[in-house]
Design goal:
- By secondary structure, this protein is of the alpha/beta class.
- It has one domain: Alpha-Beta Barrel (TIM Barrel), CATH 3.20.20.
- Helix content is 43%, strand content 16%.
- The chain contains twelve helices and eight strands.
- The chain has an eight-stranded parallel beta barrel with strand order 1-2-3-4-5-6-7-8, surrounded by seven helices.
- Helix 11 links the parallel strand 7 and strand 8.
Length: 252
């Protein structure tokens, strides 16, 4: 079985950088893959993606030297099954507010007795359609799960979430946090920043990986210095929009 390198790097505390992919097409995904990010995340929560478009992009990334994450649309564990059978190993799951939710997600990624993942190995890309006889015994160890903390409730339950076996880290979403704090549109507000930094430190103290998204260079540095190792520093949609705006403004 191929080693899950990004899981090992995050466990070791290595700092990694990546972007979210929302354009929804394998060619656009490959364009980003050539940039040299540590990881790319195919977004199924906010982007116009479905199961098949996300798997097509994951397949396109296999030949590139970058790690692939998938963010499912919600925290329903049932939405993980087709992705793990499709060969995806790394997941980010939004709005995980309780340890019970986190435990259900961790179980969904793993075969019994550690979890409850259904066995459909013969028809799965993950096993090369039944050609990999060792997959069933090795798959559990290779799964990587990051849960998102985006609400006050999530912060209140963070200690318990961090105790869940199978949760490799917690990712903080300042935009949603700011909204839940009554500060919508103010992701860089001092109260939001303070809460995120406190959360990052708590996650690192528990020996797990902390992640965060921001497009602010100063905040990226501050969150990295606080211990965040899974740093989302851009969106492909936003990068295209900024480049297009700049080019149009230059010549009009």
């Amino acid at each position: 079985m191929i080693e899950n390198k990004i899981k090992a790097r995050l466990a070791a505390g290595d700092t990694t950088y990546g972007i979210f992919l929302g354009l929804g097409h394998p060619i656009a995904t490959e364009v980003s893959a050539g940039a040299g990010f540590d990881w790319l995340l195919i977004d199924g929560e906010h982007a116009a993606n479905d199961h098949l478009t996300m798997l097509d992009q994951a397949k396109a990334l296999q030949i590139h030297n970058t790690e692939t994450f998938v963010r499912i649309v919600d925290h329903d564990p049932r939405h993980l099954k087709q992705f793990v059978d499709g060969g995806v190993k790394n997941f980010l799951v939004p709005v995980v507010d309780t340890a019970e939710q986190a435990a259900d997600l961790a179980a969904a990624l793993r075969y019994p007795p550690e979890g409850v993942r259904g066995v459909g190995a013969l028809g799965a890309r993950a096993t090369n359609f039944g050609r990999n006889p060792t997959y069933l015994k090795e798959a559990n160890e290779g799964m990587c799960l990051l849960t998102q903390c985006e609400t006050r409730v999530g912060f209140e339950n963070l200690d318990e979430i961090l105790k869940v076996d199978g949760v490799d880290g917690v990712f903080f979403g300042p935009s949603d946090i700011s909204a839940d704090f009554g500060l919508i549109g103010q992701a860089g507000h001092p109260d939001v920043k303070s809460a995120v930094i406190d959360g990052i430190k708590k996650v690192r103290a528990a020996g797990k990986a902390a992640g965060v998204m921001t497009l602010d260079d100063g905040l990226i540095s501050d969150y990295r210095d606080a211990g965040a190792s899974f740093l989302s520093i851009g969106l492909d949609t936003n990068l295209l929009a900024k480049a297009a705006d700049a080019l149009a403004a230059k010549w009009r």
